[in-house]
Amino acid sequence: MKLIICTADVTGVESNCLYPHQLEVTDGAGLMAAIARDHVCAVYKGNYRSSTNFVRSNCVVMDVDNDHSDDPAEWITPESLEEEYADIRFAITFSRHHMKQKEGKGPRPRMHVYFEISEYTDAEKYAALKRNIRAVYPFYDDNALDAGRFIYGSVSKQVVWHDGPDTIESLVTSDEIEVVIPEGSRNRTMFRWAVRSMKRYGNNDDSKKRFYREAEKCNPPLSDAELGKIWWSAGKYYEKIRSQPDYVSPEEYNGEAPPRWEEPIPFGRYTMAPFPIDALPEEVAAYASAVAESTQTPVDMAGTVALSMLSVCLQGKYCIRGKSDWTEPLNTYALAIAMPSERKSAVLHLMLRPLNVYETQYNQRNAARVESSKMRRRILERKQKAIEDQISKGKAEQEEADKIAQELADFEEEQPLQLYVDDITTEKLVSVISTNHGRAALISSEGGIFDTLAGIYTKNVNIDVMLKGYSGDPIRVDRIGRDSESINNPALTILLMAQPNVVSAVLGNTTFRGRGLTARFLYCMPISNVGSRRFQSDPVTDAVYQRYEQKMINLLEDEYPATPEVITLSAEAERVLVAFAEELEPKLVTDYAEMADWAGKLVGNTLRIAGLLCRADVYRSHDFLDEPEGLTVDADTMTNAIRLGRYFLNHAQAAYDMLPEDGMYKQAARILEMIAEKKLSEFDRRLAMRYCRTFKTVAEIQPVLDFLDDYGYIAQIQGKTPVTGRPPLPKYAVNPRIHEGFCPFVTRLSRGENSKV
To answer: Is the pTM for the entire model greater than 0.70?
Structure first.
């Protein structure tokens, strides 16, 4: 056994990332010496530890803290591990907290288990192996399963060096190990599994037993209520299948006859919905179309920016009532996804012109008032200092100082108008919101703000202001030298333009998604014009711009009320919205299960869009305020809002497909290439893993085989599986069209790429 371990020059230093000393450990004594300092079990570029710098590793280290039980009889020990891994190559050392109290837990065995593995050069595959080990052996700590983990140095007085013929991979890829269905894909996976089960065995108790047995693989488990809802939805879908002319009964499906092949479904194709530019107010639509023509860019970008412009103008001034106990503010978050060459900055510059014009003119008109306010604060501060000097000499009372201190605390200094910011920290953004009476906008043609939010500079993930600024929940502001202050009804608009790789990382950030940040954005993925752009394009005319500018300035001049004005729905508009919501709801556990966090907010976002469109269509700024009923959304406006909502739904599906862990198309392509190369007409999972060595575990390959089955490239031909006992190894027949040159790969138009999936 040989373990590659890289050590640091320090011990117990969490902030250290340099591990310059590469060691080949071949025995217990060598391991004992290596672990005395902080160390890693991988080689990194420049010796700098991070997942992105991962180069290679032939060793996986897992933690055993024994926090799962306070009963010593249930603790994991070196003896029990040697018994469990009798044929496996591994070593055990004891951590610095071995048999010591830690985090409220009494003394107990705490160990590091080092497994020799085949060499990995892919960080995600390496991390996936660690996750799969944890899934199979849940007594290991799950806090550090990435490819950039380090281990604190410790003096271990004992080392267990256990040589064997196999590696841990032989256990976690064994057919004995069931696939783990992780959080984020449980609902969709179980729905698809339920439909397949019904197609093969019918909608009966036997099939249902299989469904619930499969559900045991979900980690964390789904509740009985959730599973019941999924089974019911699958049953409804199965009834539609049964009514189709080409329906194959379970009896025929499980017979000896070969599968009835149809042409496979191409995958990797995004049929991107066009942006419904005519859904926007006439002046706004005309200008956005002109900007798109002038810059030779997709109208999607200008249209999405235009919608965000309405949000900047109207946030904090209005809200919209969906029903008696539900209102939504009118601020929106939007994210346009495009490559660097897509002229994002040019589009943004042209669309933001009215904001810049209004901000400049406003600040020019109010310059004297702002300066007078600053002077007043300076006078109060000097007065405060003078009184403090008098008190120190016994010539003034403390009461006078308290009075001026209160006056300073109550003083609201007039600030220059700042309609939007670009590159900013979250702390500074809170300050901007506070000084702008609870409103702000973050607009940028780059995605660098996500690095800030992720704590790349401070190592602290801070997205509270983004979450609260969207929903209007109070934000607590702490200022140096002053009492804490609350922003009671914050309103934040966000418009960002970012490259696909940035968006992929954002959607893959578990904190961002787990806390609902990614679900708040409207996603736009325009089809690229690069390669077909004209140099001599039609410029934006003055008349078109002036109408757009006047529209935006009229909206900006709406005064901020003490509480937002309420926009209501007409009876017809309410019926249109209810129909849309009822259409969407059952699909949250089927079509949109993998993005249910986003789709669950779509009705609310659509309602916000309806409010923006409604107010923007009022031509004379304040005439409607004289009407007792105020602003009311009609059916046409709600229909236009839903058209925009459907557009963003379509593009969100494409965006969520960019998740790093979702590389289903690429993985499916590897298996199809293997089938074609080996000229297979039939195979099983073991054979597929032998030929496709990129798949290290059953948990990695099984979802891909299920995907290819669903899309008609292969078909499981195993007979009926017993309800109890271990099922036989699945076998798959290959669709002959694969060997006839059928190609599933198509260009990803939305990403501006001309490569295969």
So the answer is: no
